[in-house]
Task: structure prediction
Amino acid sequence: MKTAYVVGSIDVAELALWAFFLFFLALVFWLRREDRREGYPLEDEINGFIESVGGPLSTALPKTFHLPFDRGSVSYPLPPNEGREPVDIAAKRFENFPGAPYVPTGNPLVDGVGPASYANRAKWPDQDAHGRARIVPLSTEDHISVWKGGPDPRGMKVTAADGKVAGTVTDLWIDRAEHQVRYLQVETTSGKTVLAPMAMATVGAGGVNIDAINAADYDAVPQLASAAEITRYEEERVIGYFGGGYLYANAGRQEPIL
Result:
């Protein structure tokens, strides 16, 4: 007589259920170890005490990632205080309780506070599948052009959050891989050349409107080391600068809506 029992009252379905439980338990421990490659150990936000990294089941093993296009390799997690730039946030706690907001003590757009925060990414440009710089000025590309059925931002005035003219669009920085405009190159009224994120701009027949920062803030937009490419490190700072303007550009933006 055929039976599903393997030994005694233990059948195939029970073995499959136990196998699933053991697999799921191992998966949870593996995921908890893998998510500890960066950002750990944690620090108590009140007294700055460094918390324990945990036991072997909650500690990630070092893993090496080989970067493409001869960029070398990186290993995570890094040893304490290795490979990290010192962080000194120009802000203070509003009140001394857990979860209390921080108040900027300097220029939050430059200091990287709150929505203007940024990560210290690699100091080389993002690359396409061929190893070329992915984001470059449109003026350097002869096979990509602006669609004739839509407005061309070049030559248009840029209106800032305060309604004043911040400058004029002189070029477009395009993504070679996606064939999209990523940044507007703006010559400010004082003659400086800066980049503004296209995702924060509205282009119309009347010009370009970017309501992130005020016209006077354009002269302090983080500058690029090269006029032909933008590094990941620089992208973080440019986007953080404009993104922080939605909270810090005007005092009224820091107040509750209701």
